[in-house]
């Protein structure tokens, strides 16, 4: 029987980091299991072609159930099925979130997760183009850079925001988040710098690391309530591997709860209805699903705009603002694209630009449940977008702000006509109808194995699954509340902190003489 100190499930944004950090100790053996294959497709490496990856073989291509708040539409929930996970197919925007997000996590009963605590791990990961500072590090593996050749009309967007009274912000990950500026990106030498490229590929020669791709985990193995191994399917054959220390589940916001439930950890009623033996009754598994919805406001340009370069991520500038909801953090994030987006696709034959409005503090909550006991079946995903009235009203306000930006003096030379939703859509009711008909996901689902100490939490502040020994979850699913902005950077941070927690736990369990020696 194959034995490892640790098995990490999922070579995504968190899993690649964990595998890297744990194998820094040459005596620690790690098996990293990934359902996808290595990221060999040229479109993965080329920043401007990321949208072509959605719905392809490198995407799990999950769909929601019909969403009542979106006129019953099903929404494509893209998640990376490839080494690097969703960091290999995303838009590469590096946003950590608002410091208030992490202070809130701590206030919810998660000591060690406040902003000052997690800043250490953000800095640890980062190789920041602008150099070391109070907020940034340069010794990390992940390249964080300014856009290489941004479109010249990003300046119009930033100028328009300033003209409306919003601050200019050169660093959304610095002293404050509000304001307008260029996004920083996870790009290195003009190519996507995924979690795999940063943390995994450089260490593949470590003899204590084994990476198995095309390996779909079917269940966790237990002795009573202790996780002792993993069963996975590879090229039609089932394999079992065993751990001496821990299993770390980093399969993502949909597959981490799915795998827990398939293994008997979850709501007992749900499991018993599917004749799954209950190992631990944790009703919070698959609950608390949160995501950022977005909607576009598109304009035709009076002139042909310079073509975007291959190094462009298509959405180069942005803005964080508060709606009239007056929350502690900005609840609206804008992305400005020097291209015309109609729905979720670019219209290349029409010169134009798009203001994309994103709700980054949603109140709506959804669920992930099992469709069947067959591990090959996708989970049932019900995000419940816009089920909370405040979410809809914030997006209505966001479209109004987008229109103010578009009609600012900075765009006078470019503005032709509004193509979406159209200048005839003016009342709040008409705008709300447009939102329900066209809103989509920002691909930021989180929260389905939330960290905490209440009855609906799944993991404790050390990321250990409640009531289970030898099992942790470390990915975006552990977020109790969603972060303000893109979620890849905080997921990498979760991987860094998880590795530190695991190492500390390992040291604490060693005999005193051995612990001192290491």
Would you write up a description of this structure?
This protein has 518 residues and is of the alpha/beta class. It is 23% helix and 23% strand. It has twelve helices and 26 strands. The chain has helices spanning 15-22, 42-45, 99-107, 115-125, 154-163, 195-200, 255-262, 268-273, 389-406, 428-438, 488-509, 512-517; strands at 2-9, 30-33, 62-63, 76-77, 126-128, 142-144, 179-182, 187-188, 191-192, 209-212, 216-223, 226-234, 237-249, 265-266, 280-281, 293-301, 317-321, 332-337, 341-342, 345-346, 352-359, 367-369, 380-382, 415-420, 440-441, 471-473. Strands 1, 2, 10, 11, 12, 13 and 26 form a seven-stranded mixed sheet that branches. Strands 7, 16, 17, 18, 21, 24 and 25 form a seven-stranded antiparallel sheet that branches. The longest helix is centred in the last third of the chain and has 22 residues, at 488-509. The protein is globular, with a radius of gyration of 22 Å. It starts with a strand and ends with a helix.
Query: Helix- and strand-based class?
Result: alpha/beta
Mean model confidence by pLDDT: 96
Summarize the main sheet. Answer: 7 strands, mixed
Beta-strand content: 15-25%
If helices are DSSP runs of H or I spanning 4 or more residues, what is the number of helices? 12
Q: Percent helix among the residues?
A: 10-25%
End-to-end distance, in Å?
Answer: 28 Å
Uncertain ranges: 512-518
What Rg is obtained from the alpha carbons, in whole angstroms?
22 Å
Shape: globular
Count of strand segments: 26
């Amino acid at each position: 029987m194959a034995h490892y100190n640790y098995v990490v499930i999922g070579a995504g944004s968190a899993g690649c980091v964990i595998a890297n950090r744990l194998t820094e100790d040459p005596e620690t053996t790690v098996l990293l299991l990934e359902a996808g294959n290595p990221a060999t497709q040229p479109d993965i490496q080329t920043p401007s072609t990321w949208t072509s990856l959605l719905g392809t073989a490198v995407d799990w291509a999950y769909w929601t159930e019909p969403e009542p708040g979106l006129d019953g539409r099903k929404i494509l929930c893209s998640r990376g099925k490839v080494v690097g996970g969703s960091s290999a197919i995303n838009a590469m925007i590096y946003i950590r979130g608002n410091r208030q997000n992490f202070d809130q996590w701590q206030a919810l009963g998660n000591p060690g997760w406040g902003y000052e605590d997690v800043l250490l791990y953000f800095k640890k990961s980062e190789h920041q183009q602008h150099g070391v500072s109070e907020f940034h590090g340069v010794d990390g593996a992940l390249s964080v850079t300014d856009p290489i050749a941004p479109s010249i009309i990003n300046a119009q967007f930033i100028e328009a925001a300033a003209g409306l009274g919003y601050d200019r912000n050169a660093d959304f990950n610095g002293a404050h988040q509000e304001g307008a500026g260029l996004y920083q990106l996870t790009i290195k030498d003009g190519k996507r710098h995924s979690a795999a490229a940063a943390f995994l590929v450089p260490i593949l020669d470590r003899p204590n690391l084994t990476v198995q791709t095309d390996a779909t985990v079917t269940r966790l193995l237990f002795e009573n309530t202790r996780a002792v191994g993993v069963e996975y399917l590879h090229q039609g054959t089932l394999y079992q591997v065993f751990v001496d220390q821990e299993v770390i589940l980093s399969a993502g916001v949909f597959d981490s709860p799915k795998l827990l439930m398939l293994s008997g950890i979850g709501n007992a009623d749900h499991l018993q209805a599917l004749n799954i033996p209950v190992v631990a009754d944790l009703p919070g598994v698959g609950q608390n699903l949160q995501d950022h919805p977005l909607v576009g406001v598109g304009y035709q340009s009076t002139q042909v705009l310079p073509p975007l370069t291959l190094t462009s991520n298509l959405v180069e500038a942005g803005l964080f603002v508060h709606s009239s909801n007056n929350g502690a953090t900005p609840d609206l994030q804008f992305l400005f694209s020097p291209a015309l987006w109609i729905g979720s696709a670019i219209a290349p034959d029409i010169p134009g630009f798009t203001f994309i409005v994103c709700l980054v503090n949603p109140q709506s909550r959804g669920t992930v449940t099992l469709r069947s006991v067959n591990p090959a079946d996708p989970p049932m995903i019900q995000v419940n977008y816009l089920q909370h009235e405040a979410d809809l009203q914030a997006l209505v306000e966001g479209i109004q702000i987008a229109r103010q930006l578009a009609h600012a003096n900075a765009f006078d030379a470019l503005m032709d006509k509004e193509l979406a939703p159209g200048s005839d859509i003016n009342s709040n009711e008409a705008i709300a109808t447009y939102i329900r008909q066209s809103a989509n996901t920002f691909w930021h689902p989180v929260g389905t194995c939330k960290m905490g100490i209440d009855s609906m939490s799944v993991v404790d502040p050390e990321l250990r699954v409640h009531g289970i020994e030898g099992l942790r979850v470390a990915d975006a699913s552990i977020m109790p509340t969603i972060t303000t902005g893109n979620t890849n950077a905080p997921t990498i941070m979760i991987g860094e902190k998880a590795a530190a927690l695991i190492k500390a736990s390992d040291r604490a369990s060693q005999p005193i003489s051995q612990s001192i020696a290491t």
